[in-house]
């Protein structure tokens, strides 16, 4: 089911397979109305070929391209931030100034000690709130295993998110999950960037490539939310983002489950970048 929005898409600026132009053209062809480019910022999980280092150039490049398509699709510019002690980078005031030019930021692994593929030691939402006070762009939790992480205090956390305008992403990853990105395809992207051969490119293997993304016990994280969490999302007016964590860009905006939850819990008005009168389906 096409939901016409997808705010979690990766391009060749990090570990996605397509250029910005290719992503936009595919989205327009599939009648997607709004997309968000959210490439990885600096992280020790990847080599430098697979994350954005120069935020200003990243923003300016995409901003220039999106202007060419402004009558056909709305393109938002964001970044995905590795918010862990183990792999994440320290965020300086200079970084904050750069981030404030963006439309939004996705913070992954907040309060996440580990994923199935390894230890993370995610930083706390309390530290994110302190950072949020300095950020002008929209800020949200990316594919967070929310109920697992906050099982004993989810109402307190949701109230804080409402108070500090931190959105929650509902992430239903792209359809091809088991062979989502091969080492060769990532090396090909790096080779294109460097004008080098595949044999010259080194890629630090990421075990995550070979497992179903953002799920627990066979269910996507948001499927594990009890009804009370959905009630509180509505009560505290938590903004919601929709995303596929897309890298191949074959199924941008394609969801099987998310529209059912949006409809069931009447969350249409809480979708980020949503506008009154949008035809979402």
Radius of gyration: 18 Å
Helical coverage, percent range:
25-40%
Tell me the total number of β-strands: 11
Structural class: alpha/beta
Distance between the termini: 8 Å
Assess the beta-strand content as a share of residues.
Answer: 15-25%
Strand order of the largest sheet: 1-2-3-4-7-8-11
- Uncertain spans: 176-181
> What order do the helices and strands follow?
EHEHEHEEEHEHHEHEEHEH
Largest sheet report:
7 strands, parallel
What is the arithmetic mean of pLDDT?
88
Q: Secondary-structure map with pairings?
A:
Blueprint: E1 5-9, H1 20-29, E2 34-40, H2 55-67, E3 74-82, H3 93-99, E4 104-108, E5 114-115, E6 118-119, H4 125-132, E7 138-142, H5 146-149, H6 154-163, E8 166-171, H7 183-194, E9 215-216, E10 219-220, H8 227-235, E11 240-243, H9 258-264
Parallel strand pairs: 1-2, 2-3, 3-4, 4-7, 7-8, 8-11
Antiparallel strand pairs: 5-6, 9-10
């Amino acid at each position: 089911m096409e939901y016409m929005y997808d705010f979690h898409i990766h391009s060749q600026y990090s570990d996605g397979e397509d250029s910005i132009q290719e992503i936009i053209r595919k989205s327009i062809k599939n009648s997607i109305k709004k997309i968000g480019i959210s490439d990885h910022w600096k992280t020790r999980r990847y080599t430098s070929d697979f994350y954005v280092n120069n935020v200003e150039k990243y923003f300016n490049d995409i901003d220039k391209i999106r202007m060419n398509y402004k009558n056909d699709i709305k393109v938002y510019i964001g970044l995905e931030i590795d918010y862990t002690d183990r792999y994440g980078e320290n965020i300086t005031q200079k970084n904050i100034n750069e981030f404030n030019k963006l439309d939004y930021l996705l913070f992954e692994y907040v309060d996440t000690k580990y994923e199935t593929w390894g230890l993370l030691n995610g930083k706390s939402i309390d530290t994110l709130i302190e950072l949020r006070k300095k950020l002008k762009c929209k800020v949200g939790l990316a594919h967070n295993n929310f109920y697992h992480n906050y099982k004993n205090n989810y109402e307190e956390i949701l109230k804080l998110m409402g108070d500090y305008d931190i959105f929650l992403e509902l992430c239903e990853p792209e359809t091809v999950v088991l062979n989502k990105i091969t080492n060769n395809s990532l090396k090909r992207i790096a080779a294109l960037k460097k004008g080098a051969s595949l044999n010259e490119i080194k890629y630090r293997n990421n075990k995550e490539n070979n497992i179903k993304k953002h799920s627990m016990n066979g269910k996507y994280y948001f499927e594990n939310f009890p009804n009370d969490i959905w009630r509180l999302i509505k009560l505290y007016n938590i903004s919601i983002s929709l995303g596929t964590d897309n890298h191949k860009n074959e199924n941008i905006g394609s969801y099987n489950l998310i529209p059912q939850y949006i409809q069931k819990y009447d969350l249409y008005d809480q979708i980020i970048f949503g506008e009154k009168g949008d035809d979402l389906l």
